[in-house]
C-alpha cells in the first residue's frame, strides 16, 4: 500500500505524483503563459503578426514621408506635387501583392526557386553593361532600362544570395565545418559572381550589404570562426583596394574625414551637412509634418537616401525612434523564426534577410547622422525607389511564409474567418421581430 503524509496545518493529504502530473516548474511556466501579455507573445501567430505589422507600418510611414519630402522638388521640376508619391504608391501595391503571393507559396518552392533566382539575377546584372540597356546614375552603373521601366538588378541579387546560401548549406549539414565546403559552391562561384558584377558597376554600398548577407549566411550555417578571420581579412583588403583605385571613393572618404569639408554646406560635403542641419532644425519634437525647410532644394535626394533626415526634421526625435523601433520589431520577428524552427533552410534564409535589412538600414542612417560616409544606400521600405521596395517586400513575404509554417500558425490563420462569422452570429439582427398585436 502507498502511505500518505499529513503535514501540520495542511487541508488534506499529499498524494504521490503520478507520471502524468505536472512538476512545480511546469506549473509555474503554465501560470506565466496564462498571463494576458505573455500568453499572446507565446502564440504561434506572434511572429507572423510582428513581421506583417512592422512591414505594413514602415511602408505606410514611408509613403507619407515620400510625399512630404518629394512634393517641393516635384513642383520645382514642373511636375505634379504627388508624382513621386503616386509612383511609390503603385510600387507599394505591387509589393503588397508580391508579398502576399510569397507568403502563401509552399515552403518547398522557395528551395526550388533558389537556382532560377540566381540565374535570373546574373543575367540581369550582366545586361547592365550593355550600352543600350544599362543606365548610369550618380557614377554607378547599376540600373537597367527595360522599355518604360527602370529596375536595379542588384536587389534581386541580394535575394539570390539568401536563397542559394540557405539551400546549399541546408544540404551540407556537418560538412560546413570543412573550409572547402564553406567556399564551394557558395562563395565561389555564386557570391563571387554576383558581388563582382555589382562592383563592376561601381556600386560599393550595395556590395557592402551583400557582404553582410554572406557573413550572416555563413555564421548561421555553422562555419568555424577561423574561417571568418581569414575571410574578414581578405574582404577588408579587397574593400581597401577598391577604395584606393577609385578617385570618387577616395574623395568621399577624404572629405568624410576632413573637418573643413564637414563644416562647408556649399562644398563637397554639402549633402551631409544639410542632413545634419535638418536633424538639428527638428530638435526634440520636429517642425511639423510638411514643414521641412531643407527639402526646398537644399538637401539632395531628400525623398531617397536622406529621407531619415526629413523624418527627423519634421517629426523630431519621436519620428526617428519609431523607425528604429520598427526595424527592431522585424529583427525580433526574425530571431523568433530562427530559434523556433527546426528547418535549416528557414533558419539560414531568415538570418540572411535579417542581415540584409539591418545592414542596409544601419548604413543609410549612419550616413545621415554623420557616422559613415555617404555611399547611396536607401532606407528599406521607407525611401523612394520601386526596385528596392518591391524586392524588400518580397523578402518579407518569404519570412511570412516561414512564419505561417510554424506549428499551429497555419491552423489559427485558417480559423480566423470562422471565428469572425461566429462572432457576428451572436449580434442582434437589424430588424427585430414585430410583436403581434
Account of the 3D structure:
- The protein is mostly helical.
- Helices cover 67% and strands 3% of the residues.
- The chain has one domain (43-407).
- The chain has helices spanning 24-34, 36-41, 46-76, 83-104, 107-112, 114-127, 154-172, 179-200, 204-221, 225-244, 247-257, 259-262, 270-282, 307-340, 344-368, 386-404, 409-425; strands spanning 134-137, 140-146, 149-151.
- Strands 1-2-3 form a three-stranded antiparallel sheet, with helices on one face.
- The protein starts with 23 loop residues before the first helix and ends in a 12-residue tail after the last helix.
- Residues 1-27 are annotated as: Disordered.
- The chain crosses the membrane at residues 48-68, 80-101, 113-131, 151-170, 182-198, 204-220, 227-243, 315-335, 355-375, 381-403.
- One of its GO terms (biological process) is peptidoglycan biosynthetic process.
What profile does the largest beta sheet have?
3 strands, antiparallel
User: Strand share of the residues?
Assistant: under 5%
Radius of gyration, Cα only, in angstroms? 27 Å
Which whole number gives the mean pLDDT? Answer: 85
The neighbouring-strand order within the major sheet is 1-2-3
Structural class: mainly alpha
Quick one: overall form? globular
Q: What's the tally of helices? A: 17
Helix residue percentage: 55-70%
- How many domains comprise the coordinates? 1
Distance between the termini: 74 Å
Pathway: Cell wall biogenesis; peptidoglycan biosynthesis
Family: Belongs to the SEDS family. FtsW subfamily.
Function: Peptidoglycan polymerase that is essential for cell division.
Region (Disordered): 1-27
Amino acid at each position: 500500500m502507498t502511505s500518505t503524509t499529513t503535514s501540520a496545518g495542511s487541508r488534506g493529504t499529499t498524494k504521490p505524483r503520478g507520471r502524468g502530473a505536472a512538476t512545480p516548474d511546469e506549473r509555474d511556466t503554465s501560470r506565466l503563459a496564462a498571463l494576458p501579455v505573455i500568453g499572446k507573445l507565446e502564440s504561434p501567430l506572434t511572429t507572423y503578426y510582428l513581421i506583417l505589422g512592422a512591414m505594413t507600418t514602415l511602408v505606410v510611414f514611408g509613403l507619407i514621408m515620400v510625399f512630404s519630402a518629394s512634393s517641393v522638388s516635384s513642383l520645382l521640376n514642373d511636375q505634379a506635387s504627388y508624382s513621386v508619391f503616386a509612383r511609390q504608391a503603385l510600387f507599394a501595391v505591387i509589393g503588397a501583392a508580391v508579398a502576399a503571393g510569397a507568403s502563401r507559396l509552399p515552403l518547398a518552392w522557395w528551395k526550388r526557386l533558389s537556382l532560377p533566382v540566381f540565374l535570373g539575377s546574373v543575367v540581369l546584372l550582366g545586361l547592365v553593361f550593355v550600352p543600350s540597356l544599362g543606365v548610369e546614375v550618380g557614377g554607378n552603373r547599376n540600373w537597367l532600362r527595360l522599355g518604360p521601366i527602370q529596375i536595379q538588378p542588384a536587389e534581386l541579387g541580394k535575394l539570390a544570395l539568401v536563397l542559394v546560401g540557405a539551400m546549399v548549406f541546408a544540404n551540407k549539414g556537418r560538412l560546413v565545418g570543412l573550409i572547402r565546403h564553406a567556399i564551394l559552391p557558395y562563395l565561389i562561384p555564386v557570391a563571387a559572381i554576383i558581388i563582382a558584377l555589382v562592383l563592376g558597376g561601381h556600386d560599393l554600398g550595395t556590395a557592402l550589404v551583400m557582404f553582410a548577407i554572406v557573413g550572416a549566411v555563413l555564421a548561421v550555417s555553422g562555419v568555424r570562426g577561423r574561417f571568418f578571420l581569414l575571410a574578414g581579412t581578405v574582404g577588408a583588403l579587397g574593400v581597401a583596394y577598391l577604395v584606393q583605385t577609385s578617385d570618387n571613393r577616395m574623395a568621399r572618404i577624404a572629405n568624410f574625414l576632413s573637418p573643413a569639408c564637414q563644416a562647408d554646406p556649399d562644398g563637397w560635403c554639402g549633402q551631409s551637412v544639410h542632413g545634419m542641419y535638418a536633424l538639428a532644425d527638428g530638435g526634440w519634437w520636429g517642425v511639423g509634418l510638411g514643414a521641412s525647410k531643407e527639402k526646398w532644394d537644399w538637401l539632395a535626394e531628400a525623398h531617397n537616401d536622406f529621407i531619415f533626415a526629413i523624418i527627423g526634421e519634421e517629426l523630431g526625435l519621436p519620428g526617428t525612434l519609431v523607425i528604429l523601433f520598427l526595424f527592431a520589431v522585424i529583427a525580433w520577428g526574425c530571431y523568433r523564426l530562427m530559434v523556433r524552427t527546426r528547418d535549416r533552410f528557414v533558419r539560414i534564409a531568415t538570418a540572411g534577410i535579417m542581415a540584409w535589412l539591418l545592414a542596409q538600414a544601419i548604413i543609410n542612417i549612419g550616413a545621415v547622422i554623420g557616422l559613415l560616409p555617404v555611399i547611396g544606400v536607401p532606407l528599406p521600405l521607407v525611401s523612394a525607389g520601386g526596385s528596392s521596395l518591391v524586392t524588400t517586400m518580397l523578402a518579407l513575404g518569404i519570412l511570412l511564409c516561414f512564419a505561417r509554417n510554424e506549428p499551429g500558425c497555419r491552423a489559427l490563420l485558417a480559423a480566423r474567418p470562422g471565428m469572425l462569422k461566429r462572432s457576428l452570429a451572436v449580434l442582434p439582427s437589424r430588424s427585430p421581430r414585430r410583436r403581434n398585436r
